Amino acid sequence: MKIGLIGAGRLGICFALLCEEAGYEVVVSDIREDYVESLNNREILTNEPEVSSLLKSAKNFRATTSNKEVIDECDLIYTLVATPSLPDGSYNVSSVWDVVKSFEGVTSKKSFVVGCTTNPGDCDKFAKELPDNIEIYYNPEFIAQGSIINDLRNADMVLLGSDSQRTSEETILKIKELYGRIQISEENVYVMSNTAAELTKIAVNCYLTTKISYANMVGDILRRSGCGDEIDNVLNSIGDDSRVGKKYLKYGYGYGGPCLPRDNRAFAAYAKSLGLNHNLGFVTDEINNQHAKYLCDYFESVGEGVFYFDYVTYKKDCDIITESQQLLLVKNLLDRGHRVYIKSDNRVIHQIRDDLYHRYGERVRFVDGKNSIKEKFYEVDL
Fold first, then answer.
1. What is the per-residue pLDDT across 200-254, written as a single tens digit (0 to 9) for each?
2. Closest to 197 in 3D by CA, of 256, 297, 120, 274
3. Whole-number Å distance between alpha carbons of 96 and 119
4. Could you give phi then psi for residue 190, rounded to 5 degrees?
5. Could you tell me the fold of the domain covering 2-187?
6. Domain 228-379 maps to which CATH number in 2.60.15.10, 3.40.50.920, 3.40.50.720, 3.90.1150.10?
């Protein structure tokens, strides 16, 4: 079986290279000509662990700028194009529609797998526009930036949506076999309708944001009760209850990054579109916002006007600042007139330097590390 992938971004290239490592011939497409050329030269600029080494060792891997080429050559075609959020919280799936249009005129049987996050019901809409000979599936990944390869190899579950009118047991078995080769642990595949799978994808992340907000709410209450030094002990005891569990039950910054916040809002937006007052997503967002304000109040009370941040990305050891709660705290402290030192990170500094200098001038400085600071400061850490 030859596997195609349309949209070889951060997640797409990781998935494609794991398929190649698992013994499949893989062809990927991307609209960036220079990026495609780099991939064919086995070169890539990335901070994702293992990607560079997997690319260099790949023997049955090729990149192109032509979606049509991928579709014509491959049997199983994934798409992992970008689906950015719209103002109402739903996803803009116009790039997926562009991929759907690429199947026009295809007469041979193909299996089309949507791997990017979509709104519940979108895959059924895609199916109506695809030729009858094209099967359609929904197969999103549950990963975090900075650990994509590891997360794909060790997924707790594989979610597979299908259309009973347009899919086959043979293809489902092939997809299960694919994950059986990729994953280190035994694959745990849940097969359901496309719409149910689309909803499950965002519902999982909505639950995680709820759990994070709950842990932070408990921690904030403990601090205000004079029990701040017991936060970890309290949350560990709550997490030891098997009905709760310890994953994501830690006190710290609020949730951020490119996945959890927008999936949370998408879940709330979809419920609202159905006329349901299931506003958990909105409530969780508000708790996240209030926690950010509380952290600023807290650090302002314990610091002395000068603060040091070891990192400002949404989590440590990554290069992504999307909805970073750490960066938000930096700006909140600066807005209140304080001064902030930030450890220089060449992966990140170009994304934030100009904006911070323009808004705050000399009150924000980038340094090699805390040992290079010559005045008294408070190190912000959670």
1. 999 999 999 999 999 999 999 999 999 999 999 999 999 999 999 999 999 999 9
2. 120
3. 12
4. -110, 120
5. Rossmann fold (3.40.50)
6. 3.40.50.720
